[in-house]
Amino acid sequence: MTDSSTPFALRLYSAPRQFDLATLMVISAAYAMLFGLMRWIGVSPLLMLFVAGGLTLVMIAQAWVLKGRFPRVSSMLVSMPYWAAVMAYAGISSGSSWWPFQAAFGGVFGVFFGYAGGALVGGVFLVADIARQLMGGKRDEVLEKTPHDEKTPFRDVEK
To answer: Which of 50, 76, 77, 129 is geometrically suited to a Cys-Cys bond with 114, CB 3.0 to 4.6 A?
Structure first.
């Protein structure tokens, strides 16, 4: 298990099962930046919904799938069927007869989106941890005891 003296680079950041108010504020800011960026580049509202839904699913999966021990694998496992379904929906709603191939592409793309989304979600929790420490707070006991900390390959570095 890591403690607050462990360097940021040696911690595995992912979505914990419980988090504090500072983390909620950082998550809200991250979603605001995501929606603002997508709006600025002209993304359709439906695509915004699908992207935000995928990232939310990744965050939930990191905390609950595989008991939170393998957050990136969990992200990929849930993103593959999610993006396959999204692409199948897009193909069927456009009247394309190629929708099964679009769904297959969505499943393959979903693996990569899941990993990238999982890393992005981990980065949000890294920023939350840095913000909490800069404001003079310490890591919560709940955040210290997340299940994935036990499986971190760097857990013995401090010993």
So the answer is: 76
CA distance 55 to 5: 30
For every residue of 25-57, DSSP letters joined together read HHHHHHHHHHHHHHHHTT--HHHHHHHHHHHHH
pLDDT digits (tens, 9 = 90+) for 12-57: 777 777 777 878 888 999 999 999 999 999 999 999 999 999 999 9
Phi, psi of 42 (to 5 degrees): 85, 30
**Where do the structural domains in the chain lie, given as residue ranges?**
13-150
Distance from C-alpha of 62 to C-alpha of 13, rounded to nearest angstrom: 10
User: How large is the angle between the packed helices 71-93 and 45-64, nearest 10 degrees?
Assistant: 150
Measured distance CA(31)–CA(23) in Å, rounded:
12
The strand ranges marked E within 73-152 are: none
Helices H, strands E: what count in the chain? 6, 0
Counting every residue written for the chain, the total comes to: 159
Tokens 């999966």: give the residue: 61
Entry pTM = 0.74
